[in-house]
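Run log, item B.
One chain of 498 residues. Sequence copied directly from the ordering sheet:
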Amino acid sequence: MGSETSGNSNNKSVVVLSKLATNEQHGENSPYFDGWKAYDNDSFHLVNNPNGVIQMGLAENQLSVDLVEEWIMRNPNASICTNEGIESFRRIVNFQDYHGLPEFTTAIAKYLGKTRQGKVKFDPKRVVMAGGATGANETLIFCLADPGDAFLVPSPYYPGFNRDLRWRTGIQLLPISCTSSNNFKITIEAVQEAYQNAQQANINVKGLILTNPSNPLGTMLDRDTLKKLLTFTSQHNIHLVCDEIYAATVFDAPQFISIAEIIDDDEIRNHCINKDLVHIVSSLSKDMGFPGFRVGIVYSFNDDVVNCARKMSSFGLVSTQTQHLLASMLSDGEFVEEFLIESVKRLRKRHEKFTNGLEEVGIKCLKGNAGLYCWMDLRPMLKEPTFDAEMSLWKLIINDVKLNVSPGSSFNCPEAGWFRVCFANIDDQTVEIALARIRMFVDANNNVNENGVVKNKQQWKKNKLRLNFSNGKYDENAMNMMSPNSPIPISPLVRARN
């Protein structure tokens, strides 16, 4: 008879867990998550902990939350927890169809079209719910591939993909190397090389995954590149998965181009593209700033994928209370229009403020026009062009500058010295403090020894104290931001709090 435990030399029971529970494929041991742990252990607060770590490793859009709050105040009937909305309570709490509330899927389809400038229409019947983009990505991979299969993905790419796409599905991610020589733009030649290398290694490639706009680059794929990539995947009979969760964060020209628009292009139609191989992942986490609502969307042009994904969605449905609220909000066309316009204005303003502040101290960023972050070039600050030097610099920034920025190596970047820094999850005053810390760090950079340690630590601390000023007004909630998904265990790469 099998046993759940086995004895050891100390006569204590050892719990035997699954291979999934004990493997290291989740990716939590990445510096990307280590920075979050450092923030959790020593979180910045303007009053209570002014010397703490400022969270700039979290891609959250909190610049327009006041617009949503105002809408909710004006529309109390959108909630089933108010006097005005109580009439809908019984219907909503008893609804459990994994197709979703009809008014919700209809509203989502309209919203997807609006965020793509109305150039393409989306069918509500193809909208499949999931628990955030994480759940949507994994659900789609479960539908498309078997353990051991592989997907090509341009690097640098989002570190969470190792968890979202790979951990439970057992598939492989094969990086397509993109470099700064052409601003990290993906080329069809690089895709072909990666595909051929996989073929030679007898790896079964099931598809290509694109993040458009890019995380972490903040750039977009142009029409010609999308056409070439779509043609390539169709010719090789592999899937094309387009993660478009940042579609409505485009704050400067050119406009975002969805793969849904490319499919309808006359030139592409002449190439006999197989639409059954094309799939889109969307979300409300980034565009609307609703990560806690866990609203992810799978939109596939393949009927079988839609049917399978919908069955799988039973494991990660969006609550009907959330569906009800969002159906009302997203159906308010005037509000959605005004929100999207104002949101990109605020993103543009914050992006300009932050990148201009970096430029003033000689730090450049990759030119981008989308997203909630910048791809910051700190190569001139490396002792040598290696990833070991990048990690030394990152530890200095975390432990002494007290900023959580994410090193490029955690994004599988092929070049050392690039860092992603997020600018939309903190308020204006915290941005000023972060820029002041960066300015001081750059000024002190020549005062660093060969081990990457600030020589005059007392002077550094004395100067840093001068940065912790207050206008007497602050937002208590804004100063206590921490992602609910942030891992808690202390990382061995980050020094314990003194």
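Observations after the first pass:
- The longest strand covers residues 205-211.
- The first helix runs from residue 19 to 22.
Flagged for discussion on Thursday.
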